[in-house]
Amino acid sequence: MALIVQKYGGTSVADAERIQSVAQRIAARHRAGDKLVVVVSAMGDTTDRLLELASQVSEHPEARELDVLLSTGEMVTKTLVAMALHSLDIEAVSLTGAQAGLRTDTAHGRARILEVEPARIERELERGRVVIVAGFQGISEELEVTTLGRGASDITPVALAAALKAERCEIYTDVDGVYTADPRIEPNARKLRDITYEEMLEFSSTGARVLHPRAAELGMVYGIPIVIASSFSEEPGTLIHGGVSMEQFNKVRGIAHDPRIAKVTLRGVPDQPGIAASIFEPLAERHISVDTIVQNASVERLTDLTFTLDAKDLAAATPIVEELAKAVGATDVVADDELGKVSIVGTGIQSAPGYASRMFRALSDADINVEMISTSEIRITCIIQRADVEKAVRALHKAFELEKADTGEL
Ligand code: ADP
Ligand code: ASP
Ligand code: MG
């Protein structure tokens, strides 16, 4: 009898009919003898609608109230799934994040899980019940409701799987696995049989929203096997694991993209120690994460400093950067919020020669201008114009022959 933690995403529980079909899948597994903890997201675009409602009544909704509001989305789903299971004669109980023991810090809207107290879930499992848990939410030490961040209901099942020492975490979504690129953009994308935590983490961090990066990270730290599969079919999914890829090592596994990137350049910054820290510290304090940073070689002790960030953070970052520019004596600040990024991901690609040049050649052949480049051990990222992002995904997919079963090697 295996203990499995499952998660069903928003599209999979978008209406009553889909909730019933999810309940049937859960019932079949329960009857087959598995012990199940099931995490659910808010139905369809509920979270967006709640955010929109909040913005209609307040220009700056208070973070505490917003978290309580957003947490209701997942509460509706978990209750309905439990009811649907009851009508199939399955014993089930639904729990909020707080009842499930998810303790977080107090950072509303982007809380981090501090610990999971699994006693309540364990009691319910011992009674033979299926436990349904509202994803994306927890409770702080001050007993305030918190949420983990957009798309973060993926984190809940991995954290629960770690705390409960579950055999596996199964994430059910609207695609049947991790593909070599977003299948909605590249029709020739191929489903990967397996992928390592490191590759998945880079994939997610560079835009493949099929799994939240913090879920990949938690899976890696606790060694939880994660399967991504479809809630609409019985197709085998993609296994995320800690070993060496079953498919060939040292090759491009896929293309990730993110169409919402902005770039900020501070021009004429005095080239002296401490300047970079004085610029990036205030941004970090306001939880604005900065991605690629490039500092040009200085001419007459003046330099240009450029960095990228999520386009949605640009409005919050601009006044801070303008104030800093004045304080450090920079000439001016220019921003561009019409950018995107495209990345090739694969273990060892940075150390193998030829991948970068092949990437740049493919982009240039497609008439795409590269604005900035950043690399990690297993990733090369190019910042390009937003309008070129989809074309770039397809060009790179083709250049690295990812549609073929065993290719991508140089
Ligand atoms: P859920 O609501 O189930 O969490 P998401 O919309 O967050 O689902 O994530 C699933 C989506 O991720 C897919 O519909 C797909 O368009 C997108 N996606 C992006 N990159 C990839 C990829 N490499 N493989 C599979 N899906 C991807
Ligand atoms: N409902 C939340 C959101 O839409 C969390 C999630 O679905 O992952 O961001
Ligand atoms: Mg998601």
| Helix content bin | 25-40%
User: What structural class do helix, strand and pairing data support?
Assistant: alpha/beta
Might you state the CATH topology name of the largest domain?
Answer: Carbamate kinase
Please state the overall shape, judged from the principal axes of the Cα atoms: globular
CATH architecture of the largest domain: 3-Layer(aba) Sandwich
In whole angstroms, the N-to-C terminal distance is 45 Å
Query: Major β-sheet, in short?
Result: 8 strands, mixed
Q: What is the string of helix and strand elements? A: EHEHHEEEHEEEHEEHHEEEHEEHEHEEH
Proportion of strand residues: 25-35%
Bound compounds, please? adenosine-5'-diphosphate, aspartic acid, magnesium ion
DSSP summary: helix tally: 11
> What's the CATH C level of the largest domain?
Alpha Beta
User: Could you state the CATH homologous superfamily of the largest domain?
Assistant: Acetylglutamate kinase-like
Number of domains: 2
The radius of gyration is 23 Å
What features would you describe in this structure?
The protein is of the alpha/beta class and 410 residues long. It folds into 2 domains: 3-174, Carbamate kinase, CATH 3.40.1160.10; 254-399, VC0802-like, CATH 3.30.2130. It is built from 11 helices and 18 strands. It has helices at residues 16-31, 46-57, 63-86, 119-126, 155-164, 197-205, 213-222, 275-285, 314-328, 355-365, 389-399; strands at 3-8, 35-40, 92-95, 102-104, 113-116, 130-134, 137-140, 145-147, 168-173, 194-196, 226-230, 238-241, 254-270, 290-295, 302-310, 332-345, 372-376, 379-385. Strands 3-6-2-1-9-11-12-10 form an 8-stranded mixed β-sheet, with helices on both faces. A 6-stranded antiparallel β-sheet has the order 14-15-13-16-18-17. Strands 5-4-7-8 form a 4-stranded mixed β-sheet. β17 (372-376) and β18 (379-385) form a beta hairpin. α5 runs parallel beside α7 and α10 (355-365) packs across α11. The protein is globular and about 75 Å long. The two termini are 45 Å apart. The structure holds adenosine-5'-diphosphate, aspartic acid and magnesium ion (MG). Residues 9-12, 41, 151, 173-175, 178-179, 181-184, 208-210, 254 line the site of adenosine-5'-diphosphate.
